[in-house]
Structure formats: C-alpha cells, structure tokens
Amino acid sequence: MPAIEQALISFFEQVAQKDKALLETLVREPCFSIDLARWCFTLPDLHRFLQQRGDVFSALDYQQFRKLIFNNPINSAVKVHGAEITIADNQTNVDKSTYALVWPASPTVSR
C-alpha cells in the first residue's frame, strides 16, 4: 500500500482509537465538531487540516485527496476499533456534506 494511503488509514485509525493528542488537536480546530459520540468534518476542511500537518498530505491537491478518500478502505479500518464513518448531513454534494466518525456507545450498566 502506498505511503499516502497508509498515512490516511493510520490517521483515521488514531481518531477511531481516540488518540488523546490527536483528539486535542481536532478539538482546537474551529472547522471540526467533536463530542463524546462523534467527530464531524467536511472533506474540504479535512483536506486543509491534513495539508497543514506538513507530512505526506502537504502536496496533495483537493481532487487527489477526494479520490484517495473514496478509494480507500477507511471504514473497514475504523470498524476494527468499533467506529464507523457516516454521513451526518447530506447536502447532495460530497464537498458540502458533513461526515462523522462515530464511536460506539459506551455500555450501560444494568441494575
């Protein structure tokens, strides 16, 4: 698997695993919404965020990024960690829709 594909999967796996440092970074980004149940993002905002990290994504233009996102087994990778990617707000345009990485609900204690 090419390095850029692996880096994208690794990024989503870290979010799915609730990596503390990464979640703190995501919380500080005004373009993202994050709470105990999910992390919401748009593709343009995610692209900008990943480009600013200065790693393998810095030279990736938006069209290449979209192709990478949709041709990658991201959902399979995060499901291993109990999470999934969903469409949180469908605007009938992938660039305007909001997506969410949803974490599993915490188990409830029955009494």
How would you summarize this macromolecular structure in one to three sentences?
The chain is an alpha+beta fold. Helices cover 43% and strands 15% of the residues.
Folded structure, characterized:
With 111 residues, the chain is of the alpha+beta class. It is 43% helix and 15% strand. The protein is globular and about 35 Å long. It has one domain (3-102). Strands 1-2-4-3 form a four-stranded antiparallel sheet. The chain starts with a helix and ends in a 9-residue tail after the last strand. The model has no long low-confidence stretch (mean pLDDT 92).
List keywords for this structure.
111 residues, 43% helix, alpha+beta, 15% strand, 4 strands
Write the topology of this structure.
Blueprint: H1 3-16, H2 20-28, E1 33-34, E2 38-41, H3 43-52, H4 62-70, H5 74-79, E3 84-89, E4 98-102
Antiparallel strand pairs: 1-2, 2-4, 3-4
Low-confidence stretches: none
Helix content: 40-55%
Distance between the termini: 48 Å
Q: C-alpha Rg, in Å?
A: 14 Å
Q: Total helix count?
A: 5
Class by alpha and beta content: alpha+beta
